[in-house]
Amino acid sequence: MIGATALLLFSGGQDSTTCLYWAKSQFSSVEAVFFHYEQRHRIEYESARKLAEMEKVHLHELQVPAFRQIGGSAMIEERRIETGANDLPNTFVPGRNIVFLGLAGSLAYKRGIHDLVTGVNDADYSGYPDCRSDFIAAMQESLSKGLDYPIHIHAPLQKLDKSGIWALSQELGVLEKVVEFSHTCYLGERGTRHPWGYGCGKCPACLLRKNGYKRFIDKNI
To answer: Among 33, 175, 193, 217, which is 20 to 30 Å from 145 by CA?
Structure first.
């Protein structure tokens, strides 16, 4: 095991759910934190809460309303999901992972925890600059210096594409749990159950999840 306790940044999506089980395999104890930033639907929170209850993981909940005041993101406002002039999807929430990791670092400090776990990755990061490995390395250094307290940020999915993330969930023995209980769809669609899970099947998040699942299955036929 890496250490005694880890704090997981938990959204209830495929990536952070896979990280939940990875963390449980690496640490003797896992806590999780969910950020309420007035995202456009509650489905991901319900997924995170249910998974935390199932796995007996304490779920901290922090309110971050400032992103609603700043505005301009399809993750918060009811607007069509599309790519902007800067080639970033308008689901990008500027500074979100900076704020989330900062708050998680603060919570970890108060809880006596040195290890943070996050589900960011380079391959399927949708162009988000705050999911890249150089950003994670910079945040680890900044938090450790700013808190004068060693913080280690683990990103076990960093070099994996979605196919590899599905493979990791299978390796951990939790593939069906990730399919059934995690939520990824940007539109909050939970009515249709596909082989890869629930979702509209058309938004960028669903397409990444669906296409990754197909590649994973094709490799294992």
So the answer is: 33
Residue 183 lies in a domain: no
Residue type, 38: E
- How far apart CA 92 and CA 146 sit, in angstroms, is 26
Confidence of residue 74 (pLDDT cuts 50, 70, 90): very low
HSE-CB for 116 with a 13 A CA cutoff: 29
Computed over every residue of the chain, the mean pLDDT equals 87
**Residue 20 reports pLDDT greater than 80:** yes
Kindly report the CATH number assigned to the domain that includes residue 121.
3.40.50.620
Domain encompassing residue 116: 5-161
Identify whether 190 is part of a domain. Answer: no
- Structurally, how many domains does the chain consist of? 1
Q: Is residue 82 part of a domain?
A: yes
Q: Is the residue at 191 inside a domain?
A: no
* Beta-ladder partners of 153: 116
Q: Distance (Å, rounded) from C-alpha 149 to C-alpha 167?
A: 34
Q: CB burial class (10 A; 0-12, 13-18, 19+) of residue 78?
A: exposed
67: CB partners within 8 A, 6+ apart: 37, 38, 73, 76, 93, 96, 99
Residue 81 has pLDDT above 80, yes or no: no
Q: Indicate the helix (H) or strand (E) that contains 214.
A: helix 204-219
**With contact defined as beta carbons under 8 Å apart, do 116 and 3 qualify?**
no
